[in-house]
Amino acid sequence: MGDDTDLGMIKAAARRAAFARRKAAFDALGPDHADLLSDVLAPHAGKVIAGYMPMRTEISPLAAMRRMAAAGPVGVPVIQGSGMPLRFARWTPDCAMVAGEFGAQIPAVPDWLVPDVLIVPLVAFDRQGGRLGYGGGFYDRTLEQRRAQGPVLAIGFAFGAQEASELPLEPTDQWLDLIVTEAEVIAPGGGGA
């Protein structure tokens, strides 16, 4: 029990530090840096892509999502409940949106999709493909479920400033296949336990 508490405290401290780095990058650069993300997604045109609606100081994938929506289906995450994987509802640049859990915008009338490629928001990442999320485990459960069903590509999208040299990870944490920042595309060499 002590180890869980210690890891929880370590993760909380890592999140605080990463949020501060992300806010500084957001304040300095602004949210719109999806050019490299669009390039990475281009070969996947026509596949089901899952993006996300940016909140607060998150880097915005919206420009890339708009480009991909012209070529095929794009979805955004919908939280179904605590301890459950995400579901993804079809998004178009002009669809009606409403506030979902935690204030994230979701399509008013969900048309459910199963994504082949997920653009994954995060708090921090490392070059091995590790990801520190918000603590709810939604993307970890979702990626675990999707990977059990077949191939899926998980692309972390973040400011370069969100990189950490070391992350407090657990066996249940799912690894990223690629990380895209405003300045580079990182293909992790390892990953996964």
Automatic annotation (TrEMBL):
<protein>
    <recommendedName>
        <fullName>5-formyltetrahydrofolate cyclo-ligase</fullName>
        <ecNumber>6.3.3.2</ecNumber>
    </recommendedName>
</protein>
<dbReference type="GO" id="GO:0030272">
    <property type="term" value="F:5-formyltetrahydrofolate cyclo-ligase activity"/>
</dbReference>
<dbReference type="Pfam" id="PF01812">
    <property type="entry name" value="5-FTHF_cyc-lig"/>
</dbReference>
<dbReference type="InterPro" id="IPR037171">
    <property type="entry name" value="NagB/RpiA_transferase-like"/>
</dbReference>
<keyword id="KW-0436">Ligase</keyword>
<dbReference type="InterPro" id="IPR002698">
    <property type="entry name" value="FTHF_cligase"/>
</dbReference>
<comment type="similarity">
    <text>Belongs to the 5-formyltetrahydrofolate cyclo-ligase family.</text>
</comment>
<keyword id="KW-0067">ATP-binding</keyword>
<keyword id="KW-0460">Magnesium</keyword>
<keyword id="KW-0547">Nucleotide-binding</keyword>
<dbReference type="InterPro" id="IPR024185">
    <property type="entry name" value="FTHF_cligase-like_sf"/>
</dbReference>
<keyword id="KW-0479">Metal-binding</keyword>
